[in-house]
Write a structure and sequence with these properties.
GO terms for molecular function: DNA binding. By secondary structure, the protein is mostly helical. It has helices at 10-23, 33-53, 63-73, 79-95, 113-118, 124-132, 136-148, 200-207, 233-248, 256-269, 275-286, 291-294, and strands spanning 159-160, 182-187, 193-198, 210-219, 222-228. The chain is built from twelve helices and five strands. A hairpin with a 2-residue loop joins β4 and β5.
Length: 299
């Protein structure tokens, strides 16, 4: 893993890493000046993220880290940008870092950004209808995602708080205020491990599914070690969308559970604190740590 010195401009470091990669490709693998410029611009963005969040350099990024980056990025950018970044990384891995052979490629990830912006929250009755149309395993995942505000892949990473220490991040005393349950941890975007609260009744049902031996699961090109026999990732997302379409004739996707969580928590917290503070608390609970991102979920 690469180590990056403090007091160095992260953007400058990222741009240099991207430029060094493109020097080995320009004129031989890629002749188009426009493509070279676009790839270098995209790789600088990739480099900055993996430097800061994965503690590695652009050139040393593994295939699994590339898939993790693209999966996380899918909720932030449109399909065209996501495909450009995938192609840039793939070209680097085929011709520079040799992480991929010329016959291998990175998994194509579908952008969720537009869906996230357009989606709306579900009412309690609508959630009950969706849950009623799912298998027991998927239904439990839906209830947990709603109650704890989880992303689809985070369902695969649930661990008891006593079994894994969360990363050190800002936390107000009001975090989880007004809710009872058991503290667990999940691994979110960029590998960030954060605390989540799962209501006692759901925690009990979750523990009844605990696996004797953890199981390895690959979801959209990323490997996870899951400790519970519940679904998450693409399998759960597909189940949710299918059940929602069957029962409600529309679907906002499993990500709608995060919209619901954000809106319900804001309603609860604003009864005892100002909007700005409530927004900060919810941003911490959801793993954003930036209130402006959380506001997207309040539409």
């Amino acid at each position: 893993m690469g180590k990056f010195a403090q007091n160095v401009d992260p953007q400058a470091v990222a741009e240099k890493q991207a430029a060094n990669v493109m020097k080995q490709i320009q004129g031989t693998i890629i002749s188009s000046v426009g493509t070279v410029r676009n790839y270098e611009e995209r790789l600088a963005i990739v480099a900055k993220t993996v430097n800061e969040q994965m503690n590695t350099s652009l050139r040393n990024m593994t295939v699994e880290q590339a898939h993790q980056y693209l999966t996380d990025r899918a909720s932030e950018v449109g399909q065209k940008t996501l495909d450009m970044e995938r192609q840039a990384i793939q070209t680097m891995m085929q011709h520079v870092s040799k992480e991929l052979t010329l016959n291998e490629s990175l998994t194509v990830i579908k952008s969720e950004a537009q869906q996230n912006l357009d989606s709306r929250s579900y009412t309690q009755d609508q959630i009950k209808a969706v849950v009623g149309a799912q298998t027991e395993k998927n239904a439990l995942s839906t209830e947990i995602a709603h109650a704890a505000g989880l992303r689809a892949h985070e369902l695969l990473t649930i661990r008891a708080r006593s079994e894994r220490t969360p990363d050190n991040r800002p936390a107000l005393d009001e975090k989880f205020q007004g809710r009872d349950g058991q503290i667990y941890t999940v691994e979110g975007k960029g590998g960030l491990v954060r605390e989540v609260l799962i209501p006692n009744n759901l925690a009990e049902r979750l523990e009844n599914t605990r696996l004797d031996t953890p199981k390895e699961i690959t979801d959209r090109g990323v490997n996870y070690t899951t400790h519970y026999d519940i679904n998450g990732g693409q399998r759960w997302s597909s189940s949710f969308s299918s059940a929602s379409n069957r029962t409600l004739t529309w679907s906002a996707g499993g990500h709608g559970m995060r919209h619901t969580y954000a809106q319900e928590r804001m309603s609860e917290l604003q009864k005892s604190m100002p909007y700005e503070k409530a927004l900060e608390v919810v941003s911490q609970e959801m793993g954003h740590f930036r209130p402006d991102i959380t506001e997207v979920y309040l539409r």
